[in-house]
Amino acid sequence: MTSGDVAILMQDLLDSDEVAADDSFFDAGGTSMTALTLISEVHRLSGVSLPLIDIVRNPTPDGIARLVTQRGKQAAPARSDAAGAAP
Predict the structure, then answer these.
(1) What tens digit of pLDDT does each residue of 58-72 get?
(2) Cα separation of 20 and 87, whole Å?
(3) To 5 degrees, how large is the angle CA 78–CA 83–CA 84?
(4) Which of 13, 49, 59, 61 yields a CA-CA distance of 20 to 30 A from 29?
(5) Contact predicate 25/38, CB 8 Å
């Protein structure tokens, strides 16, 4: 998920014409309730779950996209060469 994807989600949730990559979700009119909806949409689209505190600490599309990338890498199971071999 890119920061552009997150910005589009934020635009839709906040009924805003434009959200820049460095715009704060909360400064743009987001609340804790709309942040929960944002978290739900991020999870639906990326499969990554973020706690609300992450949105509070990283409220920009850039910050949220970075978290999704980091969490996605952490959640991906490590695969060894042997794991991919046929039995």
Answers:
(1) 999 999 999 999 998
(2) 50
(3) 105
(4) 49
(5) yes
